[in-house]
């Protein structure tokens, strides 16, 4: 984690702080810091406007006041990360298990379930691992994604 670019570390911290405090306004602030809307949810079923993001997230993650949402964000961002080389910027991905099939296959399944939402418990990837959520932050500090892939 010490090798994260400054802007990546700053965005990660904003999300972590909102999740630790279970503060929807701080989460909204992290989301709105972007110039473009992060991708939440599945294509065709995701918010298109910043003003809809918090309502979408709290509706799609079980628990009062986004408790499942905050638990997932905290757990995911405390896991090891990976770097995906994309143009024009590198993308920092949490958890590394979501992009490294070898790591996922070596990790006990119960541990992988930490990165899975309640509604996705029965879903599996083509490799047979649980369908994990991931967070992607660009090297420029842009929050790109919080969803399954």
Describe the protein's architecture and organization.
With 149 residues, this protein is α+β, with helices and mostly antiparallel strands. The chain has one domain (6-148). It has 6 helices and 5 strands. Strands 1-5-4-3-2 form a 5-stranded mixed beta sheet. Helix 1 (6-21) runs antiparallel to helix 2 (24-32) and helix 1 (6-21) runs antiparallel to helix 4. The model has no long low-confidence stretch (mean pLDDT 85).
Give structural attributes:
alpha+beta, 149 residues, 14% strand, 5-stranded mixed beta sheet
Major sheet details: 5 strands, mixed
User: Mean of residue pLDDT?
Assistant: 85
Helix count from the secondary structure assignment: 6
- Kindly report the oligomeric state of this protein: single chain
Low-confidence stretches: none
